[in-house]
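Sample entry as discussed:
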Amino acid sequence: MKQALNTLYVTTPEAYLRLEGETVCVMIEKQKKMQVPLHHLGAFVLFDNVMLSPALLGRCAEDGLSVVWLNRSGRFRARLEGPVNGNVLLRQAQYRAADDRDKSIKLAKRFIAGKIRNSRQILMRGARENKSEAEKSNLVHASRLLAGNLKKLPTVQTHDELRGVEGDSARIYFDALPKIIKPSARETFNFTTRNRRPPRDPFNALASFLYALVLSDCRSALETVGLDPQLGFLHAVRPGRQSLALDMLEEFRAPLCDRLALTLINREQLNAKDFDKREGGSVLLNDKGRKTVIGAFQTRKQEELNHPVLDQSLPIGLLAQIQARLLARFLREDSEDYIPYLQR
């Protein structure tokens, strides 16, 4: 089993990272705040105007270490990429599958099946833990509607039909999700629908931030196995869009992002002071909030679970790598189907 490599998240504006021997030094206002062995790191995720020395940039490109820059809200800005790696035959198989209508819709349905099924698991768990009979009933009803949408997927013939089922499922899910937030936190984390670009309430700001973190992991995993993260099967292909990474993100939204968001809220690890309101009505996590979320996210990634396909215990931080390898196996025709990650 591949060892889970750590990701270094740097949120302090104007921080400077430099190479010192075989270590990375984090400098803030010309003072060394942290020093980490390079071989302990698998990726860097940098927020705002964090800078790297030319020597460190070159070493990252040479060693294939991922370096991603995000803005304050977690939206992708740029990525460092070294020489193109991976098996060209695998990418050819990916391109052929994208042009094959049957394979393309089959994979798209698998991603959405994972998304709906995992969303349903969140609602069912929320229903079991909810003390209000009315809200429990509402969550159970929503989970049954999602189960009905899952049953529709085998008969879906086109991407447009699939997006219709996905859109209806997302509406059902987000209509019910606020009932999982404990009553004392609802004044701060009240929301009525999913909104983004920009998010307009604390819950959506938190969700968007977590989605961006997991999206970065998905893209890195796809590149690691040699797939093209821009050529997807569900999301339309557009210049600069990480379509395949967005495809893979769908199966992780509920179990990795929404579940962690609910935990942080219900355990009162986040409150109104962790968010800033901006002109135009946008809401973003502030520096304190981001540090809390990133710390919880890194801790969560170290936790282990039993992968339903491999029937093997592994760190949550390796899920994207495993799913990328399962997808590559399907595209190479080494397996008959792609099974999305399904939360137990």
User: Anything to note?
Assistant: The domain at 88-331 is CATH 1.20.120.920 (Four Helix Bundle (Hemerythrin (Met), subunit A)). Residues 101-129 form the longest helix (29 residues). The chain has two domains: 6-80, 88-331.
